[in-house]
Phospholipid-transporting ATPase abca7
Amino acid sequence: MADSTNAPSSFWTQANALLRKNLTFQKRSMITNIQLVLSPLFLCLLLVLIQNLVDNELDKPSNRCGCTCVDTDGNGQCETKCGIEYSTLDQGFSCPIPHPPEWPPLLQIPEEQFRAVRTDFTSYQDLPNVSCKRTGSCPATVLITGNNQTFAQSVSANMFSTTPLNINFSDILYSIADAALGSRRNTENTNFLDAAFFSITPIDFLQPQCASNSQFTIPFQLGSATIQQDVHCVQSLHLWRNSSSEINDELYKGYRKGNPERQINEIVAAYDFLNSNENLLNVTIWYNSTYKNDTVSQPLALTRVARSVNLASNAYLQFLLGPATKVLFEFVKEMPKPETKLKLDFANLLGPIFFIWVVVQLFPVILTSLVYEKQLRLRIMMKMHGLGDGPYWMISYAYFLAISSIYMICFVVFGSSIGLKFFTLNDYSIQFVFYFLYINLQVSLAFLVADLFSNMKTATVVGYMMVFGTGFLGGYLFHYFLEDSSFPKAGIIAMELYPGFALYRGLYEFAQYSFAGNSMGTDGMRWKDLSDGKNGMREVMIIIALEWLIVLGVAYYVDQVVSSGRGPLFFLRRHKKNISSSFCKSSLRRQRSKVFVQIEKQDVEQERERVEELLLESSKTHAIICHNLKKIYPGKDGNPEKFAVRGLSLALSQGECFGMLGPNGAGKTSFINMMIGLIKPTSGSAYVQEQDILINMNRIYTTMGVCPQHDLLWETLTGREHLLFYGRLKNLKGDSLLHAVEESLKSVNLFHGGVADKQARKYSGGMKRRLSVAISLIGDPKVVYMDEPSTGLDPASRNMLWNVVKRAKQNRAIILTTHSMEEAEHLCDRLGIFVDGSLQCVGNPKELKARYGGSYVFTMTTSPDHEQEVENLVRNLSPNASKIYQISGTQKFELPKQEIRIADVFEAVDKAKSRFTVQAWGLADTTLEDVFIKVARGAQTFNTLL
């Protein structure tokens, strides 16, 4: 249909063709693309809306700093004043505090059920008996060690006063400054309102021995309010340990997160006086950090350490200068603060679960596109027209990566433009690297998963199940493991091997850093933060990068095995040479000894012998040579093996059109599928343009055209765009390409009336069929396979198509299957009739009709009473005539041509009309359809007898 450069298209030519096709296909999906790109914007706007609703709720007057009207001069005129003294506890958090309240310094005292006692995992017998927990009398333990035991114990004896607490209510803080007070209450993030003084838990007063009247109440003034706080005496117990390592061991074993399955043994503090003496104070202090919140998501909670340091320094001074010398620790207080607006960074809290859906929703989009080409067999159609695996993988991967990159850029730009701290606070370069790595992994994963599906709807459902499942599992399962600091890090890393959890971890880290940065007015994540042991971003990036490379390699391997039909160990096989004379001779000797001897017709046997001679001569004049080709499908569910093709030998020269006739299930399509690489032959060999179909199928594809039985077209591409794509695959370029496409459209009557530029989904069945024929012939392929090309065409279009095929066969070999005897007789130079996988006869239409139809068909209709007279008439004309049909006076007979003359038949009929009434009669030559029926019936009868 068009001239081309006979050289196969190069790698970059194929890549260019596929890229242009993909861009055109993408242009047709513009509305879907816009919807996809706008979905992140919608979710970002939704987060902003939720954030504004939360901020408005928090900013209600009932939550803001309290105000009241105060009569300042007694004249009845009030003045509105606002402040913490006029606020409830809920309102107080937003008030300005120019003069923060003063609180007594406290120790962190373990709760009674957690205080240190003798247990089965500690060897120290100086600890109290566990029975004290039942009576609520367990002391609070302080551990002491150092290089000089006498010195250390002497100093520590001064830490806790032995005198009764004498409270001066006019100056409470000064009067209790020498007392070792403590609290069991958890600390908060600020100390504007000390949590110890706003709970039912009493303040603990530590003394070596508690008196009988060891419980009393102390009033504390907070603005205009007075807080009555209960104070209970708790016995302090000083215990010596020989070294700091013993203290470390005891602390770890008693730490509630260090041994979750054992009894908890907590202490107040531990002091290591090291090399301290009368001239040097060098002390290390362990403090109780059980209640310290050290997660990234919240600022560090205050720890009660200052009082422990004061006790050590004060005890040392008393040791040197006597009990009258004291460094009083009167109070602690926060820095002043301005009025603050209550806010909750809700967007960052919900960010990971929302944004994981944004990113992962690309997965089903890519997966559906890949399975779409697989389900409609467009991938194999492209391959059969010369598209190699290398260009396909490179362009397809780059295409989906580019779409994903544009999508992610829009995602970050949208989020930043509307002010989400999740994007604006974290370093954009970290975000770029993280998202780039993940979308590469996601594209690779889509290629791998696509090999598991053959139905687009199923793939779509599974893809979106993975989207929502990943989001919910990340937000409501994996999230809690991340928050639990006791969960082993190895377990977290193992869970992050699932790509969805790795993505969630990265988004979680971005959210935590942006939340903390927004709360404290600092930056979010920076590159230096990746070296922090509590930051999981570095390990996530490493996991994603490694999985990307592994999944990409596995996906390519699986594609070669599943989609390309190569063996599992294809990478170990060496490239074999083409057909050679020596190989053919040795191969023929082996095959001749193994060929199953069947009763074959002379023409079939002659074709077999011709094939063997061509193989021995290594002939280049024949485009297709098949020798003893077999295809056997294994039995399933107890059924026997199915012989689809039984030892076919066939040779086609250039310029020959070979027609394959046969009933349904005869093996015609199986034969063509073997020749075009869809299925592997069970045994035998076949060569196309001197290339072995078992070894060099990729080379054969570059010189081959295929019109499959069912139209394999992109619904959104036009007829012209289809031909441009396949023309480029066949190395047509520039004006040659445009001319070839125009001529192809004209030849199949798809050029005029704007039909060429309509999308294929708007074509009728006949128009699609004509387009498929045009695709198979564009680019001057040397071998063309047409599987029932005229199916569904009207008579005018069929005649036009026949003319196209007749012109096309001048310089190429064509194998054509059809059920139309008229089409076979009109187009084919030779015909072969297939029955039950075997070639029954080979020859041109005239030879077959002469060989299998050497008779006339005589038909006569009379009344039933004269049937015998008609039969006698026929016997007189031809003694060897055979009756082939009889019903209600109508009879048909086959008359051997060599026994009769047509004039004798007319003369006999005229005489018969004078004796009885002849209603109708006729004499017809044998048609190709008669030959087909005769051969098919004969072969089926023979196979049944076998």
